[in-house]
Amino acid sequence: MAWLPGSVAYAPSKTALNALTVQYAKDLREAGVLVNAADPGGCDTDLTRPTGLPVHRAPVQGAAIAVRLATLGPDGPTGGFFNDDGRMAW
Fold first, then answer.
1. Is 46 helix (H, G, I), strand (E, B) or coil?
2. Secondary structure of the chain: what % helix, strand, coil (to 5)?
């Protein structure tokens, strides 16, 4: 997102978050804890509105992926990055 002024650290921070997700997933697998990262998509919030970006997704829509991941069964995936469509590459 280098095209968004002041966001030079945004992409590297997301990469670091995904790497941390993978590491936590490995470390906590034996304890039966699933660790995943969620991409809620661009949501219309007080934070995003001033950017002028075309975000039309309601926060409740963005929260759906977090709820889905938080309610996975014990055999669910771990160490992944997910959006509404499923696992995403990073």
1. coil
2. 40, 10, 50
In a domain, 38, yes or no: yes
Helix (H) or strand (E) holding 35: none
Within a domain: 36: yes
What's the whole-number average pLDDT of the chain?
90
| Domain total of the chain | 1
3 exposed, middle or buried (CB, 10 Å; 0-12, 13-18, 19+)?
exposed
- How far lies 36's CA from each of 2, 26, 30, 61, 76, in Å? 25, 11, 15, 18, 10
The predicted-structure confidence for 18-56, as pLDDT tens digits, reads as follows 999 999 999 999 999 999 999 998 899 888 888 888 888
Segments forming the whole domain that contains residue 52: 10-87
**Residue 4 falls within a domain, yes or no?**
no
